[in-house]
């Protein structure tokens, strides 16, 4: 996924009120950017870190900048949780994710279950539909990529609905996108959200598949590159 406009480099002052971040640009200007991430952002919001922001083309938008990337040690990490569905779509259409090939159509945000929307629905007349739920991973501990970084009742609900689709004869896949390139293994943060961890184990027993892929990130684009091993 290429960024539509060049990103602007800056330094993080602070993230606050969940969806706001004060940043000093290289020009010296101090801005308030939109932070499109409702999680705790554990380990990816250190004050003084190098960050990259995009400039919105909507003149009516209150916050003209969106925080996209942060540098952690030597690696860039993507913190914008509005992007993974698009990144996932491109990775499937480009043939990177082998587990999700062989379908005729791909649709996003399709209604299903109890008042939910599946991130990606893959369909083919010759096989059962495949329901793909996408989650953004930014947390890294002990060289493990982990999800979630905060309690997620919504995520737990989605796992139950994926299991219901398997029971109905469809295929269901939990697709974790790790927006960083410094991890080779994915695990579940059981200490942060035990209920989510239990729900994932239950979903897997029910037949929900789990995959996780890492990304290569630059200020120009985010590209899914290779699968991470699973330690669940």
Provide the descriptors you would attach to this structure in a database record.
single chain; 232 residues; alpha/beta; OB fold (Dihydrolipoamide Acetyltransferase, E2P); 2 domains; 6-stranded mixed beta sheet; 3 helices; 16% helix; 44% strand
Strand residues, percent: 35-45%
Q: Helix segment count?
A: 3
CA-atom Rg in angstroms:
18 Å
Q: What is the averaged pLDDT score?
A: 97
CATH topology (fold) name of the largest domain: Trna Endonuclease, Chain: A, domain 1
* Number of separate structural domains: 2
Task: Please state the overall shape, judged from the principal axes of the Cα atoms.
Answer: globular
| Helical content band | 10-25%
CATH class call of the largest domain? Alpha Beta
Spans of at least 5 consecutive residues with low confidence: none
Sheet of most strands: 6 strands, mixed
> Which CATH architecture of the largest domain?
3-Layer(aba) Sandwich
How many DSSP-defined strands?
16
Q: Strand-and-helix sequence, N→C?
A: EEEEEEHEEEEEHEEHEEE
Strand numbers in spatial order across the main sheet: 7-8-9-12-14-15
What distance lies between the first and last C-alpha atoms, to the nearest angstrom? 28 Å
- Class derived from helix and strand content: alpha/beta
Oligomeric status: single chain
Characterise this structure:
This protein has 232 residues and is α/β, with parallel strands linked by helices. It folds into two domains: 8-78, Beta Barrel (OB fold (Dihydrolipoamide Acetyltransferase, E2P)), CATH 2.40.50.580; 84-231, Trna Endonuclease, Chain: A, domain 1 (3-Layer(aba) Sandwich). Helix content is 16%, strand content 44%. The protein is built from three helices and 16 strands. It has a six-stranded mixed β-sheet with strand order 7-8-9-12-14-15. The protein has a five-stranded mixed β-barrel with strand order 1-2-3-5-4. A hairpin with a 2-residue loop joins strand 8 (116-124) and strand 9 (127-137). Helix 2 runs parallel beside helix 3. It is globular and about 55 Å long.
């Amino acid at each position: 996924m290429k960024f539509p406009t060049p990103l602007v480099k800056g330094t993080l002052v602070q993230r606050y009120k969940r969806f706001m971040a004060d940043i000093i640009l290289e020009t010296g200007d101090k801005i308030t950017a939109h932070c499109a991430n409702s999680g705790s952002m554990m380990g990816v919001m250190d004050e003084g870190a190098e960050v990259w922001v995009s400039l919105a083309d909507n003149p009516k938008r209150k916050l003209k900048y969106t925080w996209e990337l942060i540098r952690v040690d030597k690696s860039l990490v993507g913190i914008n949780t509005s992007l993974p569905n698009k990144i996932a779509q491109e990775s499937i259409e480009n043939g990177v994710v082998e587990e999700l090939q062989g379908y005729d159509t791909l649709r996003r945000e399709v209604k299903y279950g109890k008042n939910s929307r599946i991130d990606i629905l893959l369909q083919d007349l010759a096989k059962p539909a495949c329901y793909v739920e996408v989650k953004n991973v930014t947390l890294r501990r002990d060289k493990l990529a982990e999800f979630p970084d905060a309690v997620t009742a919504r995520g737990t609900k989605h796992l139950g609905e994926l299991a219901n689709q398997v029971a109905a004869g469809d295929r269901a896949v939990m697709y974790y996108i790790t927006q960083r390139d410094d991890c080779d293994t994915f695990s579940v943060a059981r200490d942060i959200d035990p209920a989510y961890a239990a729900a994932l184990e239950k979903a897997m027993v029910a037949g929900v598949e789990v995959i996780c892929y890492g990304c290569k990130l630059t200020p120009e684009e985010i590209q899914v590159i290779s699968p991470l091993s699973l330690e669940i």
